Amino acid sequence: MIILLxxxxxxxxxxxxxEAVRPELEDKYLGxxxxxxxxxxxxxxxxxxxxxxRECTVVAAGGDGTVNFLLNKLMKLEEKHRRRVIIxxxxxxxxxxxxxxxxxxxxxxGHIPVKLDDRNALAHNIGRVDYxxxxxxxxxxxxxxxxSIGVIAQANYFFNSGDRLLNWLKPRFVPAAxxxxxxxxxVSAPNIPAKIIxxxxxxxxxxxxxxxxINPHVSGNxxxxxxxxxxxxxxxxxxxxxxxxxxxxxxxxxLARSKFQGLPKTKSWKVKSLGIQPSSLTxxxxxxxxxxxxxxxxxxxQGYLRVCQ
Length: 309
What we know:
Blueprint: E1 2-5, H1 9-12, H2 14-30, E2 35-37, H3 40-51, E3 56-62, H4 64-74, H5 79-82, E4 85-91, E5 107-108, E6 112-115, E7 122-132, E8 138-143, E9 146-150, H6 151-161, H7 164-169, H8 174-188, E10 192-198, E11 201-213, E12 217-219, E13 222-223, E14 235-241, H9 245-255, E15 266-271, E16 273-278, E17 282-286, E18 289-307
Parallel strand pairs: 1-2, 1-3, 3-4, 4-18
Antiparallel strand pairs: 4-6, 5-6, 7-8, 7-18, 9-11, 9-17, 10-11, 10-16, 11-14, 12-13, 14-15, 16-18, 17-18
């Protein structure tokens, strides 16, 4: 087993959390036969050597961004190597949506969730995103939880960059920090003129937020009530359009109760692919990581990687 530990995750708390739970991890899951790696280039080099000989479980120890980073590194491997990889995770981050819903028997002390049962690994969907970046270059990235444009992407961008109050809240009260980032963005972020291509239909609208989900948990306690999961044969798509501040707040509080479908000014679909054409460069969120994008195409890759339970 190879563990990629992101020491900067959770505002630099990940290393302290790792040291606190390491004895329990070794007792219940790891033993002492594992390789701890901090540097991504060392990981890729070591992994190629191991995968020439045998299957390998690679664990992202950090938050959702660490899982996404690992995913995008693995997707650059040759197919013969990628098929020998099983992905695991130790939730040392702020939100840890990749683990949700997290059964009690898959949590360590301090409510740290884990996916480390590689003997019962399941095929897991991923999303492929092709887009044009701010330099006009075509890019390709992947996600395992969700991607979005609009308020949720802007809120994630603000959560990552922060202001003085948010940076004070994050190491002390993570749920309060998430709500603060969400509410502040709801008040200030404009709707985004965009065209959405769903199968053969074109929808021109002003996007408040558009989420494409493999796992309907999007941040903290917020969750869509879309009937999709990492083994579904479709992606879930949730659109909020042309919303003012009051409507955005009502939707936010509904998402905190996992209520979405049927709300005013919302639409939802289940699809294998879609196109998103914002009128200008906009923030695109992939598992909490942000880039700037336009001319976005999203494709389901069904059962593409194996993931620990």
